[in-house]
Amino acid sequence: MPHDQIQQWKKSDFQLCDLLLQTVEPNILNILRALKTCNSFWKKAQIIFANDSQRLYDSTNRLASLKQSSNDMVNFMAEAQSAVEELKMFLEVDSLEEIKSKLDKHYMVMIL
User: Which residues are CB-contacts of 90 (< 8 A; sequence separation ≥ 6)?
Assistant: First the structure.
């Protein structure tokens, strides 16, 4: 690839990374700011946001901390059912091995 094309690619990549960083929440910005390419940015963002363990922890915590704070049983049951459905979606997989793997993560989250 000619030098001028490489420079143009680097410039475009830098501009896109700058645009991406402007869309990131401040508490995550420090983690992603040091990354030099869009590819590294996306890989790190995927690790942060597509993390099954984090999603599983959030869903489990939501269900475990659910409390009926008023006499409105209908809203309480709707929240509980929503949390249960979120956990069920996590366990939807094609093979028994995948189920075992996800259950292992679930048990670890329950321990935490």
Answer: 52, 55, 56, 59, 102, 106
pLDDT band at 51 (very low <50, low <70, confident <90, very high): low
Mean pLDDT calculated for residue range 9-16: 87
Q: Report the number of distinct structural domains present in the chain.
A: 2
- Print burial letters for 10-27: b (CB count within 10 Å at least 16), e (below 16): eeeeeeebeeeeeeeeee
Residues 65, 87 within the same domain: yes
The answer to whether 63 and 80 are in contact (CB under 8 A) is yes
Domain extent for 41: 3-49
Q: Are residues 23 and 62 in the same domain?
A: no
- Say what percent of the chain tops pLDDT 70: 96
Query: Given the structure tokens 């490489």, which residue do they identify?
Result: 6
Residues 41 and 56 in one domain: no
One domain for residues 20 and 68: no
Mean pLDDT for the stretch of residues 1-26: 84
